[in-house]
């Protein structure tokens, strides 16, 4: 037991940290609770992320096969912890400004991060479900965190109802797989699938239901319906969190389940499903965003499209494809967090938050630094070289072509061209339209530093990190394909 606890060190740290933060926030004065627990939460996340830089040698199994620690989980946990820590930091000024400085926010973030860490280390379908629900339940509360805002309450309710439906579908798929495989451990399921002379239709139905539940978590088409409404209604810091860490965790979970548990002949079946989801997400995300005028809804559809591009890397089910997927997730987290940070940093003259694209008219004249940062993020999301966002798209398309999926890569390229329209339209509004209102900057030095860091990473200077990222993602991907 103690050996298993040591292997699951990051989750142990997060569990103790969330409990300690909860007690600390409960028994300290209210005006200090938010700052103390937020800093404590960031420290815990930093320790957890730092502990992951020394990845376990090989593959370590804990808790009788329920939990696995390998290079793949270690890499994704670093991304998840970094995104969660940034989400805690960027929310501090927003919470204090609105008098909502409640200590529950960082505690919920810690619990969500704990669930996501369990997701990417799940070696069993039951561990998968527990981790996914542990990440989802705090997220429902975070979506409705602004209790006085009807839109926030509506977002939380929609997210909860649709999330419960998706969880039921996922659990039904787990029961089907268990019924036909006799086990919920991924390794055992893989052995049975490889030994079968003919594919099992019941097993295939189970895979479909599991993918339906996971597709909801990554907001992939046709299970994307919650994303625009929740992004628009939820507080902006929460929407930024939803767009980053949960997506990385769910994509990693999906990759592990499909590659590890369903190899061989079954892989051809789930690859067709993933390709359909990828194409539908890319096309809908690109086309539907064109008509959006709300900034957060625009970023929501952009998120849907980017999930489609990431799934292009998963479609081949090859080490190169998984490596490209991890590379895409890394850059996507920086791009989307930076975009939300700029929106969060801006204020209307009446103190209100920026909601529509029209509010950003002439931003280059009133806030040139923020306009430049947002332009970098938009160009990078559009995949325009030499910005860093071009290279993950190139990597996933290259992996698809190398596996003979030329048509998928062509559709992805066309969708990327269509999506570039609304990214460039936003840049045009900032630089060529006359200012509608003189937007002010929130002036948070922490958020300003986060924006600068994300912008530098997404700029051409970010290409300096490509070689280390290529090595790290290749090593992480290889962990799913043992010799």
TrEMBL record:
Keyword Transport assigned: yes
Record keywords: Cell membrane, Membrane, NAD, Quinone, Translocase, Transmembrane, Transmembrane helix, Transport, Ubiquinone
Enzyme class per UniProt: translocase
Chief location bin: membrane
Pfam family, one: Proton_antipo_M
Species of the source: Sandarakinorhabdus cyanobacteriorum
Transmembrane segments: 6-27, 34-52, 72-91, 103-120, 157-181, 201-226, 238-261, 273-291, 322-344, 370-391, 397-424
Membrane topology: Multi-pass membrane protein
GO BP, sorted A to Z: ATP synthesis coupled electron transport
Record's function text: NDH-1 shuttles electrons from NADH, via FMN and iron-sulfur (Fe-S) centers, to quinones in the respiratory chain. The immediate electron acceptor for the enzyme in this species is believed to be ubiquinone. Couples the redox reaction to proton translocation (for every two electrons transferred, four hydrogen ions are translocated across the cytoplasmic membrane), and thus conserves the redox energy in a proton gradient.
EC id: 7.1.1.-
Compartments in which it is found: Cell membrane; Endomembrane system; Membrane
Family membership: Belongs to the complex I subunit 2 family.
Subunit comment: NDH-1 is composed of 14 different subunits. Subunits NuoA, H, J, K, L, M, N constitute the membrane sector of the complex.
The keyword DNA-binding appears for this protein: no
GO cellular component terms given for this protein: endomembrane system; plasma membrane
Name of the protein described by the UniProt record: NADH-quinone oxidoreductase subunit N
Domain (NADH:quinone oxidoreductase/Mrp antiporter transmembrane) ranges: 122-417
Catalytic activity: a quinone + NADH + 5 H(+)(in) = a quinol + NAD(+) + 4 H(+)(out)
Source species, domain of life: Bacteria
Gene behind this protein: nuoN
HAMAP family recorded: NDH1_NuoN_1
GO molecular function, one term: quinone binding
């Amino acid at each position: 037991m103690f050996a298993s606890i040591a292997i699951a060190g990051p989750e142990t740290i997060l569990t103790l940290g969330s409990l300690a933060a909860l007690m600390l926030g409960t028994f300290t004065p209210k005006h200090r609770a938010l700052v103390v627990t937020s800093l404590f939460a960031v420290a815990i996340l930093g320790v957890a992320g730092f502990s992951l830089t020394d990845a376990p040698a090989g593959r370590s199994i804990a808790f009788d096969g329920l939990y696995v620690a390998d290079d793949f989980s270690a890499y994704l946990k670093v991304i998840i912890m970094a995104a969660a820590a940034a989400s805690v930091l960027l929310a501090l000024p927003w919470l204090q400004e609105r008098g909502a400085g409640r200590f529950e926010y960082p505690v919920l973030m810690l619990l969500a991060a704990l669930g996501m860490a369990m997701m990417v280390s799940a070696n069993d379908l039951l561990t998968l479900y527990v981790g996914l629900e542990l990440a989802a339940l705090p997220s429902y509360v975070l979506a409705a965190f602004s209790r006085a805002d009807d839109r926030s309450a509506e977002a939380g309710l929609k997210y909860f109802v649709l999330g419960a439906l998706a969880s039921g579908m996922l659990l039904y798929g787990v029961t089907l797989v268990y019924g036909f495989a006799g086990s919920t451990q991924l390794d055992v399921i893989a052995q049975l699938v490889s030994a079968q002379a003919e594919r099992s239709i019941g097993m295939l139905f189970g895979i479909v239901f599991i993918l339906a539940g996971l597709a909801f978590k990554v907001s992939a088409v046709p299970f994307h319906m919650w994303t625009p409404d929740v992004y628009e209604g939820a507080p902006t810091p929460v929407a930024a969190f939803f767009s980053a860490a949960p997506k990385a965790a769910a994509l990693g979970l999906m990759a592990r389940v499909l590659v590890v548990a369903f190899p061989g002949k079954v892989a051809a079946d789930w690859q067709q499903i993933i390709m359909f989801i990828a194409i539908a997400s890319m096309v809908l995300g690109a086309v539907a965003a064109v008509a959006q005028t709300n900034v957060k809804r625009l970023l929501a559809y952009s998120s849907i499209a980017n999930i489609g591009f990431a799934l292009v890397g998963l479609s081949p089910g090859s080490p190169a494809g998984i490596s490209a997927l991890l590379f895409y997730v890394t850059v996507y987290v920086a791009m989307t967090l930076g975009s939300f940070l700029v929106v969060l940093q801006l204020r209307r003259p009446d103190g209100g938050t920026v909601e529509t694209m029209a509010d950003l008219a002439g931003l280059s004249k009133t806030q040139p630094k923020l306009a430049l940062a947002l332009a970098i993020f938009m160009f990078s999301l559009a995949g325009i070289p030499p910005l860093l966002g071009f290279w993950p798209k190139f990597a996933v398309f290259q992996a698809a072509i190398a596996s003979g999926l030329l048509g998928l890569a062509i559709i992805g390229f066309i969708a990327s061209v269509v999506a570039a329209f609304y990214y460039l339209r936003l840049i045009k509004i900032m630089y060529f339209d006359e200012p509608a209102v003189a937007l002010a900057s929130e002036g948070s030095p922490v958020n300003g530093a986060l924006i600068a860091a994300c912008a530098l990473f997404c700029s051409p200077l970010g290409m300096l990190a490509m070689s280390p990222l290529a090595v790290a993602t290749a090593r992480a991907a290889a962990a799913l394909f043992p010799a």
